[in-house]
Design brief:
Elements: H1 4-45, E1 52-54, E2 68-70, H2 77-88, E3 96-98, E4 104-105, H3 117-127, H4 144-154, E5 160-167, H5 174-194, E6 202-206, E7 225-233
């Protein structure tokens, strides 16, 4: 029996999927580009043109409606807040956050009230810790169940910007600690994405040993940890950027 018709159907399906993926990506890029242009104009009008709103445009990036603000380190806190609010008011923009996570703003869309997910995650991590292989960003097999529980606890906050922060103890040189803590935060972020938490709402940070647990010596191994914080709450409204393309 000939298999050529079936092969033709399969090839046709692949071609259609690739075309759909390209179309979805083009639509996402177009929306992100429009938002980036609007944000640049808003920042200029606000008197803070030194700030850049990153909507994930560029090679190797994923377009998003939740921009990261960069630059403006010399600005006052008042001007930084002004810049964040200016970008947040651009129609279509979701949650706005600074690259260091210190200042954020919501759009003019209806804002959801904070939920209990922050407390739930903290309760999970109070007794247990997400552990990694030594000097590695590989999550230990014994911690995967805890990651499952963290993902479940975070689901009520879908639509929020959630910071995933990696910490180390003070052993070893600090540049290496910062790199390792960031790699571990990214590993947890990817683990959460694989469990259904949208990547668009997760921000991975690594702070090395600079923020030890209160009351602990900086070299105490208990400082090796992952922390989660809900730093912005915004509604999860489907847009071409938020809607996955063909897979």
């Amino acid at each position: 029996m000939s298999v050529r018709p079936s092969l033709a159907i399969i090839i046709g399906a692949i071609v259609c999927a690739v075309a759909a993926l390209g179309s979805a990506r083009s639509s996402q890029d177009a929306l992100a580009q429009r938002l980036a242009q609007g944000a640049a104009a808003a920042l200029e009008e606000a008197g803070t043109p030194v700030v850049e709103a990153d909507f994930g445009l560029g090679e190797g990036k994923s377009p998003t409606r939740h921009p990261i603000l960069r630059g403006g380190e010399e600005l006052t806190e008042q001007d930084r807040a002004k810049a964040a609010r200016a970008v947040a008011r651009v129609r279509g923009v979701g949650g706005v956050v600074w690259s260091d996570g210190t200042i954020q703003a919501e759009s003019d869309e209806e804002v959801f009230a904070p939920t209990h997910c922050q407390d739930d995650v903290e309760a999970l991590l109070r007794a247990r810790t997400i552990r990694f292989e030594e000097s590695s960003a590989e999550i230990e097999a014994a911690s995967r169940e805890l990651v499952d529980e963290v993902a479940t606890a975070l689901r009520p906050c879908l639509g929020s910007i959630i910071a995933v922060t990696g910490h180390t103890d003070a052993s070893g040189p600090e540049p290496g600690n910062i790199a390792l803590s960031l790699d571990r935060a990214r590993a947890v972020r990817e683990a959460l994405v694989s469990r259904g938490i949208p990547r668009d709402g997760l921000r991975a940070r690594g702070v090395g040993s600079s923020e030890p647990v209160e009351g602990l010596d900086p070299s105490d191994p208990a400082n090796r940890r992952i922390e989660f914080s809900v730093i912005s709450t915004v509604p999860l409204t489907p847009t071409p950027v938020d809607t996955p393309g063909a897979r």
